[in-house]
Design a protein that fits this description.
The complex is a heterodimer of chains A (about 220) and B (about 425). Chain A is an alpha/beta fold. Chain A contains 8 helices and 14 strands. The longest helix of chain A has 17 residues. In chain B, strand 8 and strand 9 form a beta hairpin. Chain B is α+β, with helices and mostly antiparallel strands and about 425 residues long. Chain B contains 9 helices and 11 strands. The two termini of chain B are about 35 Å apart. Classes of the chains: A alpha/beta (about 220), B alpha+beta (about 425).
Chain lengths: ~220, ~425
């Protein structure tokens, strides 16, 4: 998978690159508008991560340029700008997702995965991890071909964990992912524990491997045994 | 106690008029009486002079009885031994009126055919009393009319004179610094009011600039912090994934993660507050509060479970309102979370939500002390500094309520905290 990261903040860009390159992603990075325009006209990307405020131009113009060149690259806007107008304008210009800074890298990763899934599989959305199979559209999870009873939130958590497999996920990151818009108001992340516990129990009850590891003091990790 | 300006003026006028009346009325009476008696005395002397000039030389001693029978006001009596004229008050019984009446009488020694007599002339003072009463009445009416006139004139005059003042006052009262509308003072014909308007305008202008600067500062500061926080967050996410993190380090990392999450939240809330100030939530729809609560209930029940708190709902009304959905959602979820966050730590906790057509009330158990009403809705006012909340929740609630002209109130009774919003 080829990704293009358009971001002027070098330190942030480095971290994003580092986090994403572990997967089967190749993440290229440009830090300004003109370089970005060069890259998008030459190559095709599976996903473009776009910062709106660039030193020599506006991220929206990159979206316009993509449209002009009839490119169908998926675009996730990553911006500190968080207004309804900028969101609407972004989506109108063809962006697929909008992630406000600051975000957790794990959140960015699952958003990229979701976007690529939507772009490539045209609706046939199944995620398989060993004996676990998740149908994203119908929200059905089967373990060893048996449907398990699982809530929407637990599916969300499962996808998040599998999407970020082999990474340590802090409780704060999981809480922010699960609570969505409410995250800014929540100051107690203890509910994550309850969700993890429930999910673990449900998986264990259906003879599923114990993939969810507790990382002492830090959070949780999904790991193949 | 403050009174209206007009009442104050009228009060002074009233006191002044009454004082004048009290002082002048007896003086007026005294002098009128004095002048009247002097006048009467002159009349009596005139009677005597006329008598001496015209009648005394023709009058015989034998005619005295006849004279007396024809004259009622003047009488000639046996001498009572007077040497000079004497003027005095006396009373006579009036046969017609059947009562004693006051008189002024002059007794004067005269000689008729060489023999000493006393000439006496008198004037009835009843008339003078009537006159006095009439004059006093007239005087009273005059004062009353003057007072009334004064009242009406001051009232009319004040109302028209002070009109620009009241207009200005009303505009200042309606002025809110966070709203876009500025008071428009129209020019008046009175210099003082023009000066007043001018200075208020300057004052407001200055304050708006200061307020704007402050708002922009908070917004810019919060905005600029987003990127370093993003870097911070990303670095931590990378760091915790390193395989060489020791147990000791992970303890430190864990508290850094908590702090960065808190910083992030705080910053987002500050940004959010300034966004409300900038009126970025002007889009409105009609929707039902009941539905909104029901949609969020699962999430809050989940949160409440962590602290063993029971949530009871009593949603009687639908409460359909027209407002910005996003903001209303945030108001309600903040109220909810507040009730959960500040609840009792272990078990027995309760949150009651009741909704009528106009009012949402959230009741929760919690600290056994009433919160300070005064500071409750201020930014960063926390009843207890060790609490996790960032001190912006209630400020956000208040801001949203103010924006929509909803009335938000807090009360404390039976160890329960009541927060209510009247839509």
């Amino acid at each position: 998978m080829k990704l293009l990261l358009i971001e002027d903040e070098a330190e942030l860009a480095k971290s994003i690159q580092e986090y994403l390159n572990v997967n089967d992603f190749v993440c290229e990075w440009v830090s300004n508008f003109s370089e970005a325009i060069n890259k998008i006209s030459i190559y095709n990307y599976d996903c473009i991560l776009l910062d709106l405020m660039l030193p020599d131009g506006n991220g929206f113009d990159i979206l316009t340029e993509l449209k002009k060149q009839n490119k169908t690259d998926g675009v996730i806007i990553i911006s500190a700008k968080e207004t309804l107008e900028s969101r609407i304008e972004g989506f109108n210009l063809g962006a697929d997702d909008y992630l406000t800074k600051p975000f957790h890298l794990s959140e960015l990763l699952v958003r990229i995965q979701a976007l690529i899934r939507r772009k490539q599989f045209n609706g046939n959305n199944k995620i398989v991890f060993n004996e676990i199979e998740i149908d994203i559209l119908s929200k059905v999870v089967t373990v060893n071909d048996e449907i398990i009873d699982i809530t929407k939130k637990e599916i969300d958590l499962l996808l998040y964990l599998i999407g970020n497999q082999k990474r340590v996920l802090s409780k704060a990151a999981i809480a922010e992912h699960l609570s969505g818009d409410m995250a800014d108001m929540l100051d107690n992340h203890d509910f994550v524990y309850a969700h993890i516990k429930n999910l673990k129990k449900k998986l264990r009850n259906s003879q599923c491997g114990d993939y969810i590891k507790t990382v002492y003091g830090l959070g949780y990790k999904w790991q193949n045994e | 106690m403050s009174k209206k300006l007009l009442h104050k003026t009228q009060q002074v006028y009233l006191v002044f008029s009454v004082a004048i009346f009290i002082v002048v009325a007896p003086l007026f009476y005294f002098f009128s009486q004095k002048f009247y008696i002097e006048n009467t005395d002159e009349t009596l002397i005139l009677y005597k002079t006329e008598f001496i000039q015209n009648s005394i030389s023709k009058l015989k001693e034998n005619d005295i009885a006849v004279w007396n029978s024809y004259n009622t006001r003047t009488q000639i009596q046996e001498s009572i031994g007077l040497k000079t004229d004497s003027l005095f008050y006396t009373t006579y019984f009036n046969q017609v009126e059947q009562e004693n009446e006051p008189y002024r009488e002059l007794n004067s020694p005269i000689r008729i055919q060489g023999k000493l007599y006393t000439f006496s002339a008198r004037v009835n003072l009843v008339e003078s009393e009537d006159l006095m009463t009439s004059i006093a009445l007239l005087f009273f009416i005059l004062i009353l009319l003057m007072l009334l006139g004064l009242f009406i004139i001051t009232k009319k005059l004040s109302l028209s004179l002070w009109k620009p003042f009241y207009k200005t006052l009303r505009q200042i009262e309606d002025f809110e610094i966070n709203k876009k509308s500025q008071p428009q003072f129209s020019a008046t014909k009175i210099e003082e009011f023009n000066r007043l308007n001018k200075s208020i305008e300057n004052l407001i202008q200055k304050n708006i600039v200061i307020y704007e600067n402050q708002r922009e500062f908070v917004e810019n500061a919060a905005h600029e912090l987003q990127t370093p926080i993003a870097v911070f967050k990303a670095k931590i996410d990378t760091l915790i994934n390193r395989s060489d993190v020791t147990q000791g380090q992970s303890g430190i990392l864990s508290s850094i993660i908590k702090s960065i999450a808190r910083l992030d939240r705080l910053n987002k809330n500050l940004l959010f507050l300034s966004k409300i100030d900038k009126n970025q939530f002007s889009e409105t729809h009609t929707f039902s509060i009941k539905e909104l609560i029901e949609n969020q209930l699962d999430f809050f029940t989940e949160q409440a479970k962590q602290k063993n708190i029971k949530i009871k709902t009593n949603l009687k009304g639908v409460c359909s309102i027209n407002s910005n959905i996003g903001l209303t959602e945030i108001l309600i979820s903040n109220l909810f979370l507040n009730a959960i966050r500040h609840n009792v730590k272990n078990g027995e906790g309760e949150v009651n939500i009741s909704l009528s057509e106009q009012k949402l009330e959230i009741t929760n158990t919690g600290s056994l002390e009433e919160l300070s009403q005064k500071k409750l809705f201020n930014r960063f006012s926390k009843s207890n500094s060790s609490e996790q909340g960032n001190g912006l929740g209630l400020a956000i609630i208040k801001k949203i309520a103010d924006l929509n002209n909803w009335e938000i109130s807090y009360s404390f009774s039976d160890n329960l905290h009541f927060f209510s919003v009247r839509f």
